[in-house]
Specification:
- The chain is of the alpha+beta class.
- It has a single domain, classed as Cation efflux protein, cytoplasmic domain (Alpha-Beta Plaits).
- It contains two helices and four strands.
């Protein structure tokens, strides 16, 4: 039987890519913007992001959570149980 080993860094890269492709996200926030905890083949994720001004944060949070869930579940054998989105900042772009 094969085993897949995914480092926290690799998983964080997958999640960061998913986040940055969501319209309304400027960047990630903080020194450790992505935190994951594993329980068997289930993952809980917390992401810290910088949002662009003018976007509905509730809807943006839902879009981020959905993007993370889809990306992780499509390219890994893991299931995402929960995604917590923390808005560290909101920036105005001219």
């Amino acid at each position: 039987m094969s085993r897949i080993i995914l480092t926290n860094e690799a998983l964080a890269s997958v999640i960061e890519n998913a986040i940055l492709n969501v319209e309304g996200v400027k960047d990630t926030f903080g020194k450790s913007p992505i935190k994951c905890s594993f329980e068997d083949s289930v993952i809980d994720v917390e992401v810290n992001v910088v949002a662009k001004f003018g976007f509905d944060l509730k809807k943006l949070g839902e879009n981020i959570a959905e993007a993370v869930k889809i990306e992780v579940e499509n390219i890994t054998p893991f299931k995402v149980r929960d995604v917590v989105v923390v808005f560290g900042d909101v920036v105005y772009e001219s």
